[in-house]
Amino acid sequence: MSQFKIFIVEDDPWYGQILEYHLGLNPDYEVHLFATAKACLLKLQEKPDLITVDFSLPDLPGDKLFQKIKEYNPSIPVVVISSQEDISVAVGLLKAGVSDYLVKDEATKDLLWNSVIKIRENQSLKKEVETLKEELGQKYTFEKTILGNSPVLKSVFSLIEKAIKTNINVSITGETGTGKEVVAKAIHYNSDRKKKSFVAVNMAAIPKDLIESELFGYEKGAFTGAVSRKIGKFEEANGGTIFLDEIAEMDLNLQSKLLRVLQERELTRVGGNESVKLDVRVISATHKNLSDEVRKGNFREDLFFRVMGLPIDLPPLRERGSDVLILAKHFLDDFVKTNKISSLSLAADAKDKLLKYPFPGNIRELKAVIELAAVMADGQEIKAQDISYFSVQKENMFLMENKTLRQHTCDIVNHYLKKNNGDVIETAKALDIGKSTIYKMIQEGEIKAE
Predict the structure, then answer these.
(1) What DSSP state is assigned to residue 315?
(2) Whether residue 349 sits in one domain with residue 234
(3) Domain final residue, candidates 313, 343, 367
(4) Do 188 and 265 have their domain in common?
(5) Phi, psi for residue 84 in degrees, rounded to 5
(6) Which of 73, 138, 224, 293 has the most crowded CB, counting CB atoms within 10 A?
């Protein structure tokens, strides 16, 4: 590990040598003493890790030297040492960003010793956090995280690339288990916000009476049990991204408060009066059709347009073809590594069985199926007999909906039109019906032409 470089700027040679000697007792410290501000400024290119500054220097006051240091590199911690005990001066400097303010007396060298230790620890923590964030960003390189090469997934990649180039809000739709949060993280950790927080909130998992304080925070005494101020999820995400999962489950009253926060780019904590400025990117997700929810009166139209931004619709696993096998291998390799067992592969009949199954639970279900198969397998290969599917059959859920046969027909034609990008001929071929039937349904307003 390289030494921690400390600059001491002190015009009193005797006092400066005392500080230099005292800090130099730590072999991890590389200490340099300067008698003037100018001499220090000329050596800033040597990248000191910390600078102590005498407040009363002959060529430049300590506060002015501090400003010049910050202009050169705002991340260098500065400790001001002064013979003045003026509280207002100390407060002013601390507000301006000095790391510590020490008054010259017999205890100064020990106080400085402790201050340096704290500053060094804070710097180490910051570097560790930056390293972790960098690693996390690499982990969420979306081509490595969102596995597959099907045409429908490549369309998703194209939209993700557009999302990471700007700060536009993003709305992600798709069936449960299609990987909406994975996509949200991929967008955040590949954007210019990646060094700030990614905060995920499941709107459906928070009780209705707690969700406002959870999102926007509260002040001490705002309600019974509020014994101290609590920072909400939006403030936690300030400068970064907030992921609002299952946004369609929001109460209408809270929707109006969220709308105001997004419009004004500020919030007021519950029980407070102070406005907190926000710079937050919103990525929302839902398995419902928000347009339908607006028409039903369950979701505010003005909020819909605020959160919609760039829409990304994730395809269900059954439409991704051989991506099933790519994901299956990934989950299998990961399970083997995590559980430290012998390597496993998929037999031909197992692959065939996986490709024929519609996976109503999507990627989440595939992961569970593969892990169970890995446990059930004998030998080094997973066979078809080792693969079991769970009893939940979502593909039959539509039969429980209170719709006429004609309404079901319209839904099916709409689905295939969307899948085929509005191509009526391709849709007619896929459904084995005449294209004139589809045109008639469009003309009569039963379905919409994309």
Answers:
(1) P
(2) no
(3) 313
(4) yes
(5) -85, 140
(6) 293
pTM of the model as a whole: 0.59
pLDDT at 395: 45
Q: Same structural domain for residues 173 and 244? A: yes
Q: Do 309 and 321 belong together in one domain?
A: no
The CA–CA distances, whole Å, from 35 to 19, 84, 220 equal 13, 19, 49
Q: Amino acid identity of 152?
A: V
Enclosing domain of residue 151 = 144-313
User: How many domains would you assign to the chain?
Assistant: 4
pLDDT digits (tens, 9 = 90+) for 201-237: 999 999 888 899 999 999 988 888 788 888 999 999 9
Is the same domain home to 227 and 294? yes
> String of b and e for 22-41 (b: at least 16 CB within 10 Å)?
bbeebeebbbbbbbbbeebb
Helices (DSSP H) in 140-251: which residue ranges? Answer: 142-145, 151-164, 180-189, 211-216, 233-236
Residue 50: count of CB within 10 angstroms of its CB: 22
The strand pairing partners of 33, in sequence order, are 8
Burial class (CB in 10 A: 0-12, 13-18, 19+), 100: buried
